[in-house]
Write a structure and sequence with these properties.
2 copies of one chain form a homodimer. By secondary structure, chain A is of the alpha+beta class. Chain A has 2 domains: about 10-120, Distorted Sandwich (Protein Yojf, Chain: A), CATH 2.70.180; about 130-235, 3-Layer(aba) Sandwich (Trna Endonuclease, Chain: A, domain 1). Chain A has 5 helices and 16 strands. In chain A, strands 1, 2, 3, 4, 5, 6, 7 and 8 form an 8-stranded antiparallel β-sheet that branches. A 5-stranded mixed β-sheet of chain A has the order 10-11-12-14-16, with helices on both faces. In chain A, a hairpin with a 3-residue loop joins strand 2 (about 30-45) and strand 3. The longest helix of chain A is centred in the last third of the chain and has 16 residues, at about 185-200. The two termini of chain A are about 40 Å apart. Strand 3 (about 45-60) of chain A pairs antiparallel with strand 9 (about 125-130) of chain B. The structure holds a DNA duplex.
Chain lengths: ~240, ~240
DNA sequence: CATTCAATTTCGTGG
DNA sequence: CCACGAAGTTGAATG
């Protein structure tokens, strides 16, 4: 009962040499959290520089290096699946996280003592419901509920200009291209739909297009009308799990 | 010299009650790192559920709550700028991070003892070079270097279908709509350009379009040609800062 | 490997 | 507050 639920492999205040040692020992074998004063330099797709400040450096088991500040969900600097090397220089541990393709380099210079914690994390992911796929499935299962008189022809159809979510056929035999968005549809979504409709149209098919989403922006709606396309509001069938309101 | 560069306010192995206390005390006042065994539930724009595993829960000073696993730059679950409440239930501390607009709720059930670390992080951000703005500036400063015989007319021009990066005028007085991409231009970028060109064209203006980017995908290039648009490769003027290579 | 598209995208900016 | 577009986007899926 009193057994360890979380095994913290190390938690200590360390100097540069010790920090370098800890990182070398545990990198890619466990998750390393470093609270430290550091400056950052990045060179690759773009380049950036950040002066010295107290930050949190997170080194994950897949090689991810992320440097966090006091705000934001996203790190201020990062390197996904990096190769890491640490060298000790003066009173600093300099962490170099590199990556080919694209070729880029993140350098974190950690000055003075740092607080380092090491632990093994799980990697089980999650089950997500309510993504775009779920909506596509919903429509595919009963197209006429959303667009009157239609039947399913195909789904996830590749074209040279992208993958069409759904293709239906209406009462008069005309194809209906359907683009689905899980959130508010914007002008890009409308344009995506137009791209597909235009493609099939050029093949000589009688074709029309419908954008299905719970909401739509004004510009997107105007764009659809301007190009002879339609918007259909998506409303989930029923409360799948009771409980709310 | 031996003064603290990083002030770690707390680092301790704590039970549910103590953890709840620590979070209540420091939330939004400092950054809290919790290594723990937890399960997660999310309900909002979508919904998700993740079983028990060892994870890292990060609570930042702006209210951000992020739950990290062993891999990935991004958290497995999160809530930006959340309101947080912690209650103790059985042998667990249950953290509820909510948010209005959109209305959503993230629940992290932390079972048993956890390792918690508290520290104040900086929030200075960084200076980034080589973003899209830099490229737009570069072109705006000397349009004819990229597109022969052109002069600057306007930049960041709003249309009903989005904001145009640059408008130039060529030798024959025709408008040239320019869309800029900092990386490889894809078919979406080509479409974006077409949208703008079409808009001005419908207004009765003599207009053409150019996509400027360091690279372009084959399909995007084909799409441009199919619609009478052009691609111009962007090459940075000179090594802005010496030192590399 | 390139290409495309979704994402609980997040994040900034402008109206 | 909405709306749009960039991001060093990341990440997955597909050819």
């Amino acid at each position: 009962m009193a057994s360890k639920l979380v095994e913290v492999l190390l938690a200590a205040d360390v100097g540069p040499e010790e920090l370098a040692e800890v990182i070398s020992r545990w990198f890619r074998r466990a998750t390393i959290v470093v609270l430290c004063r550091c400056s950052i330099e990045y060179r690759g797709r773009a380049s950036s520089r950040a002066g010295e400040a107290v930050r949190l450096v997170l080194l994950k088991q897949d090689g991810t290096v992320a440097v966090h500040e006091a705000s934001g969900r996203d790190p201020v600097n990062w390197q996904p699946r990096a190769d890491v090397r640490v060298v000790v220089a003066e009173d600093s541990a300099v962490l170099r996280a590199t990556r080919d393709s694209p070729r880029e380099e993140l350098t974190v210079s950690i000055r003075g003592r740092a607080w380092v914690t090491v632990a093994k994390l799980g990697d089980v992911g999650l089950q997500l419901f309510g993504g775009e796929d779920d909506i596509v499935n919903d429509i595919a299962g009963n197209p006429s509920r959303f667009i009157e008189g239609t039947t399913l022809v195909a789904r996830e159809v590749g074209t040279p200009y992208g993958r069409v979510d759904l293709i239906l056929r209406d009462g008069s035999g005309r194809l209906v291209i359907v683009e689905v968005k899980r959130g508010r549809a914007d002008v890009d979504a409308a344009h995506q739909l137009r791209r597909y409709v235009e493609y099939y149209s050029r093949l000589g098919l009688e074709v029309t297009g419908v954008l299905v989403a719970p909401e739509i922006s004004g510009q997107a709606l105007k764009y659809l009308k301007d190009h002879g396309l339609r918007y259909v509001r998506y409303v989930a069938r029923a409360t799948p799990t009771a409980g709310s309101s």
